[in-house]
Design brief:
Alkaline Phosphatase, subunit A; 13 helices; 3 domains; 595 residues; globular; 24% helix; alpha/beta; Jelly Rolls; single chain
């Protein structure tokens, strides 16, 4: 009997391992600010993307696929299957780019189904617990801070070359161009997962070709005769193309191409490319017209018969991707209460366009404001129609450039699409007041570093290191912003207030010199001289009340004050005051339980 039970146990273990081995791997590559037309395979007249063109020739392409018009919203919808406005992520700054803690990411779902999960490059869904990728299901993380290299939450003086990044929560130095480094770590993760015989999800998310436009010179040299900005922008795209080719070669070397779902996509419409080739579309990044949110999506999976060139022209959305991948991966461990705003499009991928597919409405909008505004930069989409901003109607099949408004001739179609949007808005609007708060007092993340990137205020806060160097951010000489925090445990906390980040360790009032530029067409943020100030004091303001103040000495890099916080929601607004009475918010604040 004991021998029989042992054999049964071994057989069961082998069966489980066999099932896991048959789960497809997933590589999802998403780039930043690269539009549908910024690929040779989509008609660009001179961009050099041979590896992506080859992928396109061997893949299923979603050619009416739509995302949000900007980056953080796209990434949250892509990773959750939920409308961006539902998740708290409708902006890229202003405390509106942190993915609410109740959302479950694709990383977490695949991890729960036996996958190794890795995230490399740009996250832009929160830099503090519980919003970081390592808190959201990714077990291997290598990333920069904020929405791009050199933004305020990123490590000080980072530019696109030889930077420092967070690897599983620890700061490590890197050599080389940022996109190459992110792919390096992604590829090593793939190798490690194969060695450990585990299915994997590699989420490789570049900050390129988002500006500032920096690029290795050899890639700029691919475009002689073009403007320097074009050389840098398209050079970054060609660099990404090389890395896509490099990653696919590794899959071949490891003999896992056949059972790997390989996806390439982008996060919004083009920026610089709008003036060169935009596939006949109107609008670019941030736009409610198709040029702002229709982007490429290529999927290759030989074992799933997705390895021959085919175009799917059926309307699809970024909220469809999570349910689709869970379907393709056979992921069965899904919380029963979890409902998606998208649907699985696996049948479209496998069978192509067909008459039985429902003609549904989809919505995208650009809410780059503190609080969402109804109909703001919105598009209600169907297979044939686009209702823009609630009043412009375009027949997208006949008029892909969205030049002729047909709303007056089709009032019933407008009425139907407006009704759908109104119901959608009514469902989501109650969630808008649920401010995403940064946790204080959590035992797993006791030391919390806040930056001005996440100030909540009417105007955009200082979100990059150029703003910090210039001393930007005051409105009418007053500090108007605050951090929204959630205190988990009542107690005394210390507040370390800084003008420069901790890793710089520069006196509060000191100016700093500019640093040399790096290759590309843009000036790096670090080439801006740092402004000197004559702050006399610092004030700790909590919930609109000035709790305590202290003088600012010439040599002090920070001032530390303490205060008691009760459990619950609070607003933190520490600021420096100059001899003129002008205020400037503390760009950096470190909070931890006081000893």
């Amino acid at each position: 009997m004991r021998s029989f039970l042992l054999l049964l146990f071994l057989w069961s273990s082998l069966w489980v391992q066999s099932c896991i081995a048959r789960q497809p791997n997933v590589v999802l590559i998403i780039t930043d600010d690269q539009g549908y037309g910024d690929l040779g395979c989509n008609g660009h007249p001179w961009v050099k993307t041979p590896h992506l063109d080859k992928l396109h020739a061997e893949s299923v392409a979603l050619d009416d696929y739509h995302v949000a018009p900007t980056c953080s919203p796209t990434r949250c919808g892509l990773l959750t299957g939920h409308w961006t406005n539902r998740t708290g992520v409708w902006h890229t700054v202003n405390g509106r780019s942190m993915l609410r803690e109740n959302e479950i990411t694709l990383g977490q779902l695949l991890k729960d189904n036996g996958y190794h999960t890795g995230m490399f490059g740009k996250w832009h869904l929160g830099d503090n617990f519980p919003y970081r990728p390592e808190d959201r299901g990714f077990t291997e993380v290598y990333r920069h801070g904020g929405g791009g290299v050199g933004q305020t939450p990123d490590l000080w003086n980072n530019n696109y070359f030889d930077g420092r990044y967070w690897h599983n929560g620890k700061i490590v130095s890197a050599k080389g161009f940022c996109s190459d480094v992110f792919f390096d770590y992604g590829i090593q993760f793939i190798r490690d997962s194969v060695r450990e015989e585990k299915p994997f999800f590699a989420y490789i998310s570049t900050n390129a070709p988002h500006g500032p436009l920096h690029c290795p010179q050899k890639y700029m040299d691919l475009y002689p005769g073009r403007s320097k900005a074009e050389q840098a922008y398209y050079g970054m795209i060609s660099n990404i193309d090389d890395n896509v080719g490099r990653t696919r070669r590794v899959l071949e070397e490891l003999k896992i191409t056949n059972n790997t779902i390989f996806i390439f996509t982008t996060d919004n419409g083009t920026t610089l490319g709008r003036n060169i080739f935009n596939a006949g579309m109107k609008g670019s990044k941030g736009s409610e017209y198709d040029g702002g949110h229709r982007v490429p999506f290529l999927v290759h999976w030989p074992a799933g018969n997705l390895n021959r060139k085919r175009s799917v022209n059926t309307l699809t959305s970024f909220v469809d991707i999570v349910p689709t991948l869970l379907d393709l991966c056979g992921a069965s461990k899904i919380p029963p209460a979890l409902k998606f705003d998208g649907i699985s499009i696996s049948k479209l991928l496998k069978k192509g366009d067909h008459k039985g597919w429902p003609d549904r409405f989809l919505i995208t909008d650009s809410q780059r404001v503190r609080d969402p505004i109804k109909w703001r930069k919105s598009s209600v989409m169907s297979e044939q129609w686009r209702l823009v901003n609630g009043n412009e109607l375009y027949h997208i099949d006949n008029d892909p450039g969205q030049k002729e408004d047909l709303s007056a001739d089709n009032p019933e179609q407008v009425k139907k699409m407006r009704a759908f949007y109104n119901d959608w808005w009514a469902e989501l609007e109650p969630t808008f007041s649920q401010t995403t708060e940064i946790y204080l007092g959590h035992q797993e993340h006791p030391r919390v570093s806040l930056t001005s990137h996440d100030w909540i205020q009417e105007q955009n806060p200082p979100w990059n290191q150029g703003h910090i160097r210039k001393g930007s951010g005051a409105q009418g000489g007053k500090h108007r912003g605050h951090w929204a925090v959630k205190v988990l445990k009542t107690g005394k906390y210390s507040f370390e207030m800084r003008r420069w980040p901790a890793e710089a360790n520069i006196p509060i009032n000191s100016g700093i010199p500019a640093l040399p530029n790096v290759p590309g067409s843009s000036k790096a943020f670090s080439t801006i001289p740092g402004k000197a100030f004559d702050f006399e004091k610092v004030t700790l303001r909590i919930d609109g009340k000035d709790i305590a103040s202290a003088p600012v000495g010439d040599s002090e890099s920070h001032i530390k004050l303490t205060a008691t916080l009760t459990a619950g929601s609070h607003r933190l607004s520490p600021f420096f005051t100059a001899s003129t009475g002008d205020q400037l918010g503390a760009y950096y604040l470190i909070v931890e339980p006081a000893p």
